[in-house]
């Protein structure tokens, strides 16, 4: 056997399995210890401490080690776990980043150890069929029929990019296949409509696809970030003859308010003018699992493509994103016949793969972990977990509204709560935006709480820094929320007092 000078082993071999078992013990031990040592959602110390922690593990050495050692891996695992954000901690409410189920985490280990890929039949026959079945089922969730297609992608941003890719190719087909001839020399000005509250990935995608960010027309929104359908209609009706509407991108679950664009009205508009309707349900897909919240997604089935993430509201590790398309014929720009991967005589005999559904060639199997969560939590369970997060947001909003020194922006629609620390008589503050931003940084640095921030217009229309809570942990209790809000208030008062003392 070739010796590497260490006990490195390949995961699938008997000696590798043995090592995997022992490393898994280490990893699980590190997971358990980390929570105890951290004592909060993240280790205290802020950016400097995190930089120092990585430096300490490397000890001045290099990753490509001169003297390889499995012990170093153990140290690395321990430090990684200790310095990771604990997404199961009730005060980790910053990002749309859920804690995965144990089943999906185990699925990741299996998937990584077997390292299947989806670009050739001989790279992963079972994984291929698993993704096909999962895509077909997910397409049916949103209301698409048997002609539907889709693919798993590395994230909502890429799923949005793919939805816009299909819409671009359909809208501009009359003057030649875009993927064959490119966009140069076309006497048209492509237009993509999305709301002013749409995710930034929409404009980026328009840029990447050669439409240009300038092709994006931001439709005004109401005070909760919902697209005004009348405004969208006015814009479409006002297009000059050379302006080609490529897509209307509706957001189902905006990043801040978790609000839903009016899908039925936008579907009517899209149908009337023959425009592609893409729905970014990256976050809002959670509503689909809850019988109470599902009506927020009425009209979803009339879209041409829908993007959604199970690494947000779905308890699956990233990357777990999906784009589904009502009619898979619109995915033909991805067709590829590579002699070394999918020769037609092989394909004719059933040795097919998913090269022609993806932007990627080698592609990991994300379906396994998604299936693991769905199978273990089940439909009712997913609904109950989404409802629990929604209830937490409502509870938090109620407590914020009642608290002195905290100011709620609006009742939550899904599972986000936007608020700000407001000065009270006892805590005069010079710059309220800077103060709110500092409260968030103080909580992060102390390792007490991880909150998000955003900007919302104040009474005079000037955007002000606000804080945001994103509830995705169904296990969080009302007491946990009370403790979190007490920490926020204490940090706010402490900073105000410190600033006053310096004046
Ligand atoms: C509405 C919306 N769409 C798309 C995205 C991008 O998703 P991802 O981070 O998976 O690329 C986000 C991220 O928060 C989002 O809120």
From TrEMBL:
Write out the GO cellular component annotations.
Answer: cytoplasm
**Keyword terms of this UniProt record:** Decarboxylase, Lyase, Pyridoxal phosphate
Family statement drawn from the similarity comment of this UniProt entry:
Belongs to the group II decarboxylase family.
Sites bearing N6-(pyridoxal phosphate)lysine, chain numbering: 312
Q: Name one GO molecular function term.
A: aromatic-L-amino-acid decarboxylase activity
Q: Which GO terms describe its biological process?
A: carboxylic acid metabolic process
SUPFAM superfamilies membership: PLP-dependent transferases
- According to UniProt, the name of this protein is Pyridoxal-dependent decarboxylase
């Amino acid at each position: 056997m070739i010796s590497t000078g260490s006990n490195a082993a390949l995961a699938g071999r008997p000696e590798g399995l043995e090592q995997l078992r022992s490393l898994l013990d280490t990893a699980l031990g590190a997971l358990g210890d980390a929570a105890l040592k951290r004592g909060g959602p993240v280790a205290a110390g802020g950016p400097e401490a995190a930089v120092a922690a990585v430096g300490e593990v490397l000890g001045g050495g290099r990753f490509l080690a001169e003297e390889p050692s499995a012990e170093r891996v153990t140290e690395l695992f321990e430090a990684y776990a200790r310095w990771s954000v604990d997404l199961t901690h009730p005060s980790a409410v910053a990002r749309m980043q859920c804690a995965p189920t144990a089943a999906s985490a185990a699925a990741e280990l299996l998937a990584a150890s077997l390292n299947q890929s989806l670009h050739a039949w001989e790279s992963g026959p079972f994984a291929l069929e698993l993704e096909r079945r999962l895509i077909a089922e997910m397409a049916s969730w949103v209301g698409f029929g048997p002609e539907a297609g889709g693919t798993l992608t590395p994230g909502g941003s890429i799923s949005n990019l793919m939805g816009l890719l299909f819409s671009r190719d359909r809208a501009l087909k009359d003057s030649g296949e875009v993927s064959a001839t490119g966009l140069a020399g076309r006497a048209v000005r492509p237009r993509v409509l999305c709301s002013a509250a749409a995710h930034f990935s929409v404009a980026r995608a328009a840029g990447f696809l050669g439409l240009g960010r300038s092709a994006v027309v931001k439709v005004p929104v109401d005070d909760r970030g919902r697209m005004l359908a009348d405004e969208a209609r006015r814009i479409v009706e006002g297009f000059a003859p050379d302006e080609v509407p490529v897509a209307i991108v509706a957001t189902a679950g905006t990043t801040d308010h978790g609000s839903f664009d009016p899908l039925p009205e936008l579907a009517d508009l899209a149908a009337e003018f023959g425009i592609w309707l893409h729905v970014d349900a990256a976050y809002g897909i959670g509503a689909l699992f809850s019988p109470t919240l599902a009506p927020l997604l009425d009209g979803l089935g009339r879209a041409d493509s829908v993007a959604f993430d199970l690494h947000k509201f779905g308890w699956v590790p990233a990357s777990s994103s999906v784009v589904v398309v009502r009619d898979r014929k619109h995915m033909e720009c991805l067709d590829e016949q590579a002699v070394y991967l999918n020769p037609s005589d092989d394909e004719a005999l059933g040795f097919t793969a998913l090269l022609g559904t993806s932007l990627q060639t080698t592609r990991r199997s994300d379906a396994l972990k998604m299936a693991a969560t769905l199978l273990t939590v089940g439909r009712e369970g997913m609904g109950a977990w989404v409802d629990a997060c929604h209830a937490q947001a409502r509870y938090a909003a109620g407590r914020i509204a009642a608290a002195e020194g905290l100011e709620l922006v609006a009742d939550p629609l899904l599972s986000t709560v936007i608020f700000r620390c407001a000065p009270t008589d006892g805590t005069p503050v010079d710059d309220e935006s800077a103060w709110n931003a500092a409260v968030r940084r103080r909580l992060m640095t102390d390792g007490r709480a991880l909150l998000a921030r955003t900007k919302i217009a104040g009474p005079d229309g000037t955007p002000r820094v606000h804080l945001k809570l994103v509830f995705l942990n169904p296990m969080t209790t009302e007491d946990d929320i009370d403790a979190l809000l007490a920490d926020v208030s204490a940090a706010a008062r402490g900073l105000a007092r410190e600033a006053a003392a310096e004046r």
